[in-house]
Predict the structure.
Amino acid sequence: MLNDIFARHWITLHGLVVLLGLGIYAAGSHALKQRRHPSAGIAWVVSLVLLPYVALPLYLVFGSRKLVSPRHLRRPLATPPSHNAPPDDTDRLAKALGLGDAASFSQLAVHAHGSQALDALRMGIHGARQRLDICTFILGKDVLGDEICELLVRRAREGIQVRLLLDGIGRYLGGPVKLNKLRAAGVQVALFVPPLRSPLRGRTNLRNHRKMVLADGQWLWCGGRNLAAEYFEGDTRSAQAFRNKPVWIDLSFDLRGDLTQQAQQRFDRDWNFATTGVTEAAPPPTTGVAHATGSRARLVPSGPDQTEDTVYTLLVSACFTAKSRILAVTPYFVPDSTLLMAMALAARRGVAVTLLMPARSNHHLADIARHAALRELAASGAHIWLSPHMVHAKAVLIDDDMALVGSANLDERSLFLNYELMVAFYDASVVQTFAHWIEHQQASAKPYKPRTPGLARELLEAAVRWVAFQL
């Protein structure tokens, strides 16, 4: 009798916990417009039903994907097109996504190799007169990271306001950097969502993958490079270190102009979130449209602080409207079904779709997961090239109309979870400059040859793709 009563109470309690978990999941997904990948949504629902006592705490820690409500999204205003504005459709879509206007820039330098990127970085740090802001995912405990830390310490002691924004998880991936030494010298250091700070707010899985260095709000250094040796020249302090971490191929650039002021506003918002935990629903940057005779570009932030998946939406739209070419470089290629379909359909209708990747990246699981997508692209007529080097660059070029360059990989973590920062360049000459850079890297690559997988391989690839959001 007592066992029956206990069983009934247990079933009732279990049902209430399940309903609570599903209610929290549904309310959070609706209120913040989470729009998860179907596999992720199914996994959460099944887990909350079958294992609510495990799944609910995990959801509270890792389940959030958006931190701002869609009610903050600004719709496009009716503005007359300027003489040298981006294509109308692109401009309307960008404004519908809540992005700012295209802004002018000057003195663009696309870094041909790691040495040039490092020289530019040193010059920017030395050239700051009032303030210096650095945002990076990884700060290496190596020859490059040590040099950067010493430069920051020196500039802070010279009276420059120095702020370093470092991801709370990424700080552990480059080695144990001594942040106390930086703070003692006057460098302001903030960690972006440390894993043990307010874990039940659902932000632990949301990482800041943006990379930018700003001097006086006038100069911007940006791209895919983390501040660690392998992204530049390698760790030259010992031959063993150099062999263990060979130099990667990466893409970065620096520039000046109004676009830099927009990047400064973005850094300030990220800094405020890291130091206060408050997500601002601020309007897009307001530096005005570029002058008719100036080069134009648009800052494209993406992540939980955007109501829409901005980079992803721009990519899908661009693939459907591309007329002559889609040229992309990425270290990891694990797209969702919609982006993959858009690229494959572009290839089938005669657009020259070219993808450059490393033959072997630093993430083995991502290399396993990518083959299904690569086989489909190749079957559609796309050209896929595999570099013998570790290519960490991130760029997508559409015709001669747009070059989207920055920190976002073509995988689901970058496109749906991470805080990312891209720049959309609209001048044909600038687009061609990035095209030349990619084609130069392609010269040493070999074409991808798809192979029909066996049953075991297909099952392995499917299992890895199930967790594609975490790759």
Q: What stands out?
A: Residues 395 and 405 are 4 Å apart (CA to CA). The radius of gyration is 23 Å. Residues 102-276 form a domain with the Endonuclease; Chain A fold (CATH 3.30.870.10). Residues 72-84, 288-292 have pLDDT under 50 and may be disordered.
